[in-house]
Design a protein that fits this description.
- The protein is built from ten helices and 16 strands.
- The protein has about 325 residues and is of the alpha/beta class.
- α1 (about 10-20) crosses α4 and α9 runs parallel beside α10.
- It is globular.
Amino acid sequence: MKTEILEINDESLALAAKIIREEGVVAFPTETVYGLGGLATSDKAVRAIYDAKGRPADNPLIVHVHPDYDISSLVETEYPYAEELRKKFVPGPLTLVYKSKGKVSPLVSAGLDSLAVRVPSSEGAQKFLRAVNCPIAAPSANVSKHISPVTAMHVYEDMKGKIPLILDGGRCSGGIESTVVDVTTPTPLILRSGLITYDMIKSVAGGCEYAKHKEGDKIKSPGVKYKHYSPNCKTAFFARERASDAVEEYERARREGFDPVVVCDDAVGRTLGVRYIGLGKTSEEYASNVYYALHLAEAQADYVIGIGVEGDSQVDVGVMNRLSKACNKEE
């Protein structure tokens, strides 16, 4: 299969809509990462997403729609705070998990009676979603467990020959996947941290909790159960207070013949005395740059050593989640 990368215009959107109608798969940009989209109502299309990614079938997908799409046709809203969260943060990097009305393929939610729905804010995503005008199931557009893509070329490197079309919307600005919140409970539960933070949700809903995922639980959100976001090389992760241990590991790796690089925030990087790729100076920069930096590291080195960030924002919770999952040794 030939994989085309096309700028977003009337012609490429018409082609994308045709592929979606024929139950194929298209990669498209959002404000967070690139998504790998297929018709959410089609078992065939959803299977094609899982097959292209090599994704476990018990890892649910998020349904994406444009701002004017009537999500009440897909889900039930039980608690009033869910509508308040929508008014405040949607469109944007927030996914809400509702009780499903069963209108999409059961493969989307891995057989659960819930459905995760998001309305992206990026212009490219909205143009695509309006062109197809149907619910689109879409995980990140990368091979399962690999680094999430924030450019069209990142998608191409993983999906060449597997999908027919990548809509190129430039580099994603947000940089980490959406916050996922379960709104099927009296108090909203954060299933996955992101750019919409605990305090932001609590200020609207009047309360908020982090979900406690236990072994054996059926998961309602992607990005929870499995190792994710990882470079295709040797990795290690150190907390920020263990930066000196990271340097020792870097030097040990060089003695053993590796070509390592450290991924960390700029302030730490300047103190290390080793090769590093900086994430920036603020929490927002960390989030925007973390996947881009990991892709650079993978291209430049054969051993990626991550050092945790520590800023003054709850956005750092999401960044730490991605960076630690990318660089620790757990499978």
